[in-house]
Amino acid sequence: MLRDIRDLTEDPEAYAAELRRRWGGLLSYRYLGRSYSSMDLGLRVDTQLLPGAGGTVAVRATLHDEGAGGKAVTAASYVFGRTQ
């Protein structure tokens, strides 16, 4: 079950470790739909075949978290442990 990161404020090391874990997951979204010569392994995915994709990978603004009773959550609320 996802914990509220604010519960870890008494333990700076645990807080830092949890923040690194959650932030690292969010940073992966940074590279979707971008091209970097240092990261290009030659594999190309033609997203033009996807209606409305515009040559990039579409990422939903909300996620449905089964652990939150199927409620829609934003990426930020998932990272900081708060559901709507």
Topology:
Elements: H1 12-27, E1 62-65, E2 71-74, H2 75-79
Antiparallel strand pairs: 1-2
What does this protein look like?
The protein has 84 residues and is an alpha+beta fold. The protein folds into 2 domains: 29 residues, no CATH class; 48 residues. It contains 2 helices and 2 strands, in the order H-E-E-H. Strand 1 and strand 2 form a beta hairpin. The longest helix is centred in the N-terminal third of the chain and has 16 residues. It is elongated, with a radius of gyration of 17 Å.
Helix-strand pattern: HEEH
Computed over alpha carbons, the radius of gyration is 17 Å
Biggest pleated sheet: 2 strands, antiparallel
Overall mean pLDDT score? 63
Low-confidence stretches: none
End-to-end distance, in Å?
A: 16 Å
What structural category characterises the helix and strand content? Answer: alpha+beta
The 3D shape can be described as elongated
Count of DSSP-assigned helices: 2
Percentage of helical residues? 25-40%
* Count of individual domains: 2
The amount of beta strand, in percent, is: 5-15%
Strand order of the largest sheet: 1-2
The strand count comes to: 2
